[in-house]
Q: What sequence folds into this?
């Protein structure tokens, strides 16, 4: 995904303000996994958030990303190795990994080419785990506020036209654009969704949510929105004003009408999210 690979992209902000994932998420993956715990690969690893978690379970962990900028901020570890590379041309031998993960990144891939590579480098009884989250909502807020945050991301007059192709695949929970072929490529597939879009999906209950960040201070919420790749594209156009700042100021005014929020006030958040697990056993 080319925006994240640009030298000017703020990879430190990405590492600091993006949501992390709960132990419940990783345990769900491990409960599904029936292979060994020798080698794991995290694709589109970014700043290494997932590799750090996997390194406590697997003997060796590899992280791969097309962005040298992101890898410069990646979490270090004695059993973690990073390299630059593409999801569609994984630079590894056949049957190299017991687990392959992709967090918040598979929607940018060429699905057909990526799945072909996964099947090539995945070991027998190995697992593919893919997950992501869509636009968050501010819980307990008015419809006007919920719409303002969603509009920021999807309205072409705001940031909607600044996403690279693929964002809509995540918003649709990987149910099209080649991902519908997953059950034909693997003989054991589980899908978790919240909220449920696919009737056969398993629901993610509120008390077992996979996203760690359930709330943010107003200032942190602002910084999170500014990690969006669409915001980076928008700022490169050098247009007057700042659409993220305008959105957050609207939230501050409207969340408690008559009593504007302060920068340190906390916003409760909910995240639409999906987890796909696949294996050939």
A:
């Amino acid at each position: 995904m080319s925006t994240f690979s640009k030298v000017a992209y703020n990879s430190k902000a990405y590492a600091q303000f993006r949501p992390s994932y709960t132990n419940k998420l990783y345990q769900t993956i491990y409960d599904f996994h029936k292979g060994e715990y020798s080698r794991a690969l995290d694709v589109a690893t970014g700043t290494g958030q997932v590799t750090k978690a996997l390194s406590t379970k697997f003997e060796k962990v590899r992280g791969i990303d097309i962005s040298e900028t992101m890898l410069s901020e990646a979490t270090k570890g004695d059993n973690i190795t990073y390299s630059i590379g593409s999801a569609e041309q994984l630079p590894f031998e056949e049957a190299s990994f017991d687990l392959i993960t992709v967090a918040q990144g598979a929607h940018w891939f060429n699905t057909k080419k990526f799945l072909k590579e996964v099947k090539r480098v995945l070991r027998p009884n190995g697992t593919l785990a893919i997950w992501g989250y869509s636009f968050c909502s501010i819980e307990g807020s008015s419809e006007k506020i919920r719409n303002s945050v969603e509009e920021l991301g999807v309205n072409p007059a705001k940031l909607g036209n600044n996403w690279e192709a693929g964002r809509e695949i995540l918003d649709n929970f990987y149910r099209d654009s080649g991902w519908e072929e997953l059950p034909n490529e693997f003989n054991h597939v589980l899908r978790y969704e919240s909220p449920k879009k696919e009737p056969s999906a398993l629901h993610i209950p509120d008390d077992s949510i996979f996203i760690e960040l359930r709330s943010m201070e107003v200032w942190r919420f602002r910084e999170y929105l500014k990690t969006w790749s669409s915001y980076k594209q928008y700022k490169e156009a050098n247009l007057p004003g700042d659409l993220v700042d305008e959105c957050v100021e609207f939230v501050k005014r409207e969340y408690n009408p008559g009593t504007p929020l302060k920068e340190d006030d906390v916003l409760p958040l909910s995240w639409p999210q999906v987890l796909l697990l696949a294996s050939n056993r």
